[in-house]
Amino acid sequence: MEAQNAARRYGIRSIPTITFLSKDGGLIAESIGFLPPEPFASVMEGALQAEAAFQEKLAKLKEMPDDVKLNGEVALTYLERMQLEKAIPYSEKTLKGDADNTTGLLPNLHTALGAAYGMTPDEDENAEAYRDKAVTHFRTVIDSYPESDVYEPAQFYLGVVYAIQEKYDKSIEVLEKLVQHATDDNIRMAAEAQLEQVRDLSQHSD
Predict the structure, then answer these.
(1) Which helix (H) or strand (E) holds 4?
(2) pTM for the model
(3) Which of 15, 49, 82, 155 has the smallest C-beta neighbourhood within 10 Å, fewest atoms?
(4) What is the pLDDT of residues 61-120, one digit of tens each?
(5) CB neighbours of 19 closer than 8 A, spacing ≥ 6?
(6) CA-to-CA distance for 81 and 44, rounded, in angstroms?
């Protein structure tokens, strides 16, 4: 059971998968499949360097706790490490302190927060409220940052979250628009596949 919980927690879907975790349980890096010693050593060294750089950033933030950009960077790292609760206070500081997006981090931060909230397991008592938050974050990117690199991913994730919420009409609407206008071929193909699944779910829910 403990192994299953860990696999679910870190999104492990294949064996062997070796994860590199921080002391507080954050996912620093992972190696999927068998690797010979030399490539594996390179992955391990990268994980050590990433952790050292993050600890240095945290130390710097203690000296400058109101630095908006540092708060945003720390929040994004925690989100990458699947540590939503740790990311929230730093995210809030950045969102409140950088209304004009002078750091350039807000589109990515909103998208990462949306993804983290949207992936909340069904059994979590906060799942419904968190998915509503995910929708708000993705809508913010779509409405406020149409020129950002995450504009199309935010639309895709919004369609997915609507489907999870069983709001199939809204999901279909978002995904159909994305299929028609996406400039990224990978996003368009993912949206087409997701759209087909949502239409099927919608038909079976009637």
Answers:
(1) helix 2-10
(2) 0.86
(3) 15
(4) 999 999 999 999 999 999 999 999 999 999 999 999 999 999 999 999 999 999 999 999
(5) 10, 12, 27, 29, 30
(6) 16
